Amino acid sequence: MERLSTASQHVRQKHREKKKEMDDKREKKLPVEQGTTDEDQKVMAVEAFERRNIWEPSVYYTLGKESFYIAGHDITIRESMDSYGALIWPGAIALSQFLENNQQQVNLMDKSVLEIGAGTGLLSIVASLLGAWVTATDLPDILSNLTFNLLRNTKGRSRYTPQVAALTWAQNLKRDFPYPSYNYVLAADVVYPHGCLEQLLETMRHFCPPGSRTTLLWANTIRFQSDLRFTDCFKSSFNTTLLIELPQQEVRIYKATAKE
After folding, report:
1. What is the predicted pLDDT for the residue at 42?
2. Alpha-carbon distance 88 to 77, whole Å?
3. Which of 188, 187, 226 is nearest to 203 (CA)?
């Protein structure tokens, strides 16, 4: 028993060391938004860690799984500890459930849908299962896990095979997406202290240009002052309607169209 206890302690210690290493890399990788405090960063790091499955495996590994039943299907999502984008956040769950429960209001059947900041792919999976032709986008280092989750959960289930594309906000938009003509653009929990909020807004404007019939659905968890500042900028750029507010989750879901 003593040997087993010692081994368990060793595993937990290695787990803590690896987690600290991941957090240190993340802090160096993600630029901090001007005006964001160290406390904000700590809050995000703690929430990210709590959103991972907590386990004590016999050997350390970096992947966890979350399971959902949405749109009439069991969905299993593989998460990673490598970045915020490889975790499932409350906004993605809330918007997925909203789409499932409001299909008359938001009919995705045979519609073209683009998701920005798709992360683990939960929202894009749900949109695909609801009949949409989906393109899921995120940073290049997120795409491998995103593709895995999309194919795993939609193969043989969806009308269209979801597509995956690299997208760094505000970079090469006209080159890579010269004629955006999507029915819907989806975004969930893309606002946090990452220093790219202006680029995010520019990207939203690109995919919802004036004169288009594109509808943007954005779900966000309110955590920091940056969320409120971005919301003000968002409302000034689009015709905006608050569809639903979930006080317990501190999530708001907005519908927006371009101003003429």
Report:
1. 54
2. 8
3. 187
> How confident is the model at residue 173, as a pLDDT?
97
CA dihedral sign, ordered 159, 71, 97, 163: negative
Q: What is the longest distance spanned by two Cα atoms in the chain?
A: 71
Q: For the chain, first and last CA: distance in Å? A: 71
CB contact set of 56 (below 8 Å; sequence gap of 6+):
8, 11, 12, 15
Which residue has 């299909």 as its token pair? Answer: 103
Give the pTM: 0.77
Q: Which residue has the tokens 């968890």?
A: 221
Q: Given the structure tokens 């016999």, which residue do they identify?
A: 58
Residue 217: how many CA atoms within 13 Å on its side-chain side? 25
Residue stretches of the chain with pLDDT short of 50: 1-36, 48-49, 51-62
Structure tokens at 126: 């749900």
- C-alpha distances (whole Å) from 45 to each of 18, 27, 55, 130 are 14, 9, 18, 33
Question: How high is the pLDDT of residue 148?
Answer: 95
Closest CA to 123 of 65, 183, 185: 185
pLDDT at 43: 52
d(CA 184, CA 219): 14
| 40: CB partners within 8 A, 6+ apart | 193, 223, 224, 226
Nearest CA among 201, 211, 213 for reference residue 237: 201
